[in-house]
Design a protein that fits this description.
Two copies of one chain form a homodimer. By secondary structure, chain A is an alpha/beta fold. The first copy, chain A, has one domain: Ribokinase (UDP-N-acetylmuramoyl-L-alanine:D-glutamate ligase, 3-Layer(aba) Sandwich). Chain A contains 13 helices and 14 strands. In chain A, strands 6-5-1-9-10-11-12-13-14 form a nine-stranded mixed sheet. The first copy, chain A, has a five-stranded mixed sheet with strand order 3-8-7-2-4. The longest helix of chain A has 16 residues. Chain A is globular and about 50 Å long. At the A-B interface, strand 4 and helix 5 of A face strand 4 and helix 5 of B. Strand 4 of chain A pairs antiparallel with strand 4 of chain B, so a sheet runs across the interface.
Chain lengths: 334, 334
Amino acid sequence: MQIAQSPSAAIDVLGLGNAIVDVLAYAEDALVAELGLIKGAMTLVDEERVEFLYRRMGPAREVSGGSCANTMAALAALGGNPAFIGRVKADQLGQVFAHDIRAAGVAFRSRPAVDGPATARCLIFVTPDAQRTMQTYLGACVELGPEDVEEDLVAAAQITYLEGYLWDRPEAKAACRKATSIAHAHGRQIALTLSDPFCVGRWREEFRTLVEQEVDILFANEAEITALYEASTFDEALQQVRRHVRFAALTRGAKGSVVVRGDEVHVIDAAPVTRLVDTTGAGDLYAAGFLRGLGMGLDLAACGRLGSLCAARIIEQFGARAEQPLRPLLDQVR
Amino acid sequence: MQIAQSPSAAIDVLGLGNAIVDVLAYAEDALVAELGLIKGAMTLVDEERVEFLYRRMGPAREVSGGSCANTMAALAALGGNPAFIGRVKADQLGQVFAHDIRAAGVAFRSRPAVDGPATARCLIFVTPDAQRTMQTYLGACVELGPEDVEEDLVAAAQITYLEGYLWDRPEAKAACRKATSIAHAHGRQIALTLSDPFCVGRWREEFRTLVEQEVDILFANEAEITALYEASTFDEALQQVRRHVRFAALTRGAKGSVVVRGDEVHVIDAAPVTRLVDTTGAGDLYAAGFLRGLGMGLDLAACGRLGSLCAARIIEQFGARAEQPLRPLLDQVR
């Protein structure tokens, strides 16, 4: 919020991502199979397809989403000072997205598109095993381009955090490249989350180069990091990471996470989960906890533990925006 | 759904009500006080006010709502065959409302308004005591009028269920009067829920006449029934009910409910609640359980118990549309 008045104010993390409203509903496995969805993955769909799928979906609820935006919202809830760049349309769901991210305490000054496609929606089918299957209509997200990346914002941010999903559109990718140049010119850092194994498959070579040359902090889950290095085991991918990546936080669901920076390697347990409801947002919240830990100057193991605590908290509820305060989790790592 | 193809298909209950999308957020008591809201009540607000209040609200989630629509959705979840009449606009929130009620299994054929005000929203501030304070912008609901009440639908419904909130607009009230005439001409029944004590205060004399002359089944909570009869105690109101109302189900929160039909009087305990989260929809779900019990031919005490079970279930979650299946509750009363 301060940013609007003071472009030079310090930002912990500036996120660049798709601005999406999630439409969440429970679904039986039979429905996911019948609709031919790739369970557990994020698939891009066009307007006709998203409307078809919506008609087949059960009663739903709408909660602001978007992987990077979820991370920024959680960072704010943890007492950080994040900002977000992403495009909505000036429609009702666009208002919902903008309201929710600002109300969460994230600086958000991207102007809504006046015409063009509607605000993006992600239909999330949550099966009885708490797994989520995502079908995303990008809508107004396709409006995001280099012109949205304002130099003052990037220069003011300690870390600029990019979402791998942005590679699926050339204009958004160009926005990421611009942000990367500005950040490094100002001595700032770039973080990247690989987002989804299929997304990694589409852009493997670009991501490998990017990760080796431009990325200061990499976030990936097991499926994504093994997809990146076409590895058959996590450990095989880990050895590649140690050779090619300066700093990575790799999540493994119930198996916890592994944090690697130079010679430092930490193997962190997952935090206990009382009642598994919906895994939507687990990775987003891990990244939030980890980045908040870095911002607070915690050691890497504590950063990982804070990430695990945040991930555990979000999967005990429906949707990826925390319903309960996250700040009490800070007491468990200090 | 069958109704669209077959106007003569039997409907358990046809609901007439405001078609609203709820915008739910947690709020501290201090915020509710600072904004000058009447805690626990439903207040009608204009567009400017709803936008002001939304800006002050925390991160929210959107769930279809509307008291009567909630009851119809729960009736369908209990295996009933309900229909709903209400007006949305052809905008994104209107699509959300229509999708959710149809996906819940409720026949809904009201056409969305092409122009005029946006789909109605109800901002719900949920305080730490789980109490809900509602601020409603009626929007497209004001389009509902007698022309929306189709004779075949009313004639096909065993019970037509009216929401007291509709009295706040002359056209909607006229729709209710038309539905009442049609229902009685076809030997069908009229149910009414009093909705809110302030609404009762605005229309006390009309409601008293209506309840005495036209209503076959009355639903009210303690605050509403004491407001109707300007009684100082529940028992005082109860004695008035026994003199003036043929059949009433009166809810009292944690104190349970009292069902009165002629000489029959049942005092029903509230069902146990594991974790009180949000009282939104307690009355709506009680009515659904009660009406479903009637439709199944259960005795009145069992109808009351089913109502209590449904109410208990809905206050263990956020919002008034059940996230968990309601059908297992039927086993507890059969």
